[in-house]
């Protein structure tokens, strides 16, 4: 475990060093990260120009859901998407051997070691929106609520990671995988708004099949004191099950890998 | 024209090769559908600014059709070609690179039409109260308005792509453009739902004519002289952006050859 952490640190430092070299790009990423929240908050304002509640959520509460969306999109773009692209490229070119040969867990090396740190801005802005929502509501979450939130955040990260790993593993059969990532984004888009706003059938899918609700709606609801302990436990359970399944699937899929040299 | 046709055929082959990708692009035009879902939930409590549930559905389905016939993503390819220097080879060919990108931006239309036309017929047949224009003259004007919308969008996108002469990544600039387009064109929110002041301003900007205006024709929301005014606005804007394009192209080319020599 400690060895893996050390490896991770070395990889991330290398990524950071290459990225700060392109200073203009770094600045532009930051500016864009600021742009998108403005965009989505304007959309939200249009809804609230005509209504006072979105599926039972007020403007400030819905803003917190948007914040959660930004946090997870930031995490995905920081550590998941870059690796997905890299693994796909390795598979296409048959060079995954170089990764698998290294003396550490193959799944670990292939799926989390590269990162795009510029997108951490999104995570920061997401937290900003969440705090802004709470501040405007004049609400201070209790210690228990914050603790539950602190559990749901890593659980959500594991859920997203597992879904990405499932889609990435499919690259062993379908070489042009980048499209599968797009499909996940399509579902993830629904996470911008509270899940209660959608039609019942869609709400069911987003809770139990592709658990987007556990990423954005439920953590925000936790801070608002609107959630039961069962949901927190459920989020941990779903994360564990998905992680196990995706790990098994990766190990199964890798057997279908045909290297360039063999 | 012959050059264009040859390029078109080449790009068309590329599209067929990745038809799965095209299908998925169609599939991933999701955000408008999510907006529709949210509006439907709001409209369950009564019409919103005159929009009841059927009218929302009619609007967003029409918007999806317009988006599919006018949406283009060639700027990604342009960005990488300019950065990696592939543009130099294009410049050696005896034609303006704009022809290639025009072909690229048009090449997926036939396959999209093949999917969209039956889908629209089914929508009109199955969804009661859709109230889309079905008479020949309206559909003809709708097609004309699509050409205008496409032209404005293409010239805008191409000019943004040409900014690559000065900056290394044009994708960021394109994101800022999409930000404005998606909010002000009617792609994500029907313009009728904006406050009146905002609506008045938007009537003068080009974005309305790339999305909302064709949708209005298809959904029978605009008629008579207003249609011709809208089409005129489309071509006034196209001409204006074309002038900007020419200016940027000349300046950029001079700069490019200065660096390359």
Primary descriptors:
heterodimer, A: about 260 residues, mainly alpha, about 75% helix, B: about 260 residues, 13 helices
Structure overview:
The complex is a heterodimer of chains A (about 260) and B (about 260). Chain A has about 260 residues and is mainly alpha-helical. Chain A has one domain. Chain A is about 75% helix and about 0% strand. Chain A contains 11 helices and no strands. In chain A, helix 3 packs antiparallel against helix 6 (about 120-135) and helix 3 (about 60-95) packs parallel to helix 7. By secondary structure, chain B is mainly alpha-helical. At the A-B interface, helix 2 and helix 8 of A face helix 2, helix 3 and helix 10 of B.
- What form of chain A results from the Cα inertia axes? globular
Kindly report the average pLDDT value of chain A: 82
Query: Biggest sheet of chain B, open or closed, and with what strands and sense?
Result: none
Structural class of chain A: mainly alpha
How many helices of chain B?
13
User: H/E order of the elements of chain A?
Assistant: HHHHHHHHHHH
Q: State the end-to-end distance of chain B.
A: 31 Å
Strand content bin of chain A? under 5%
Question: Could you estimate the helical fraction of the residues of chain B in percent?
Answer: over 70%
What pair of chains forms the biggest interface? A-B, 32 and 33 residues
SS-derived structural category of chain B = mainly alpha
Show unreliable segments of chain B: none
Helix-strand sequence of chain B: HHHHHHHHHHHHH
Share of helical residues of chain A: over 70%
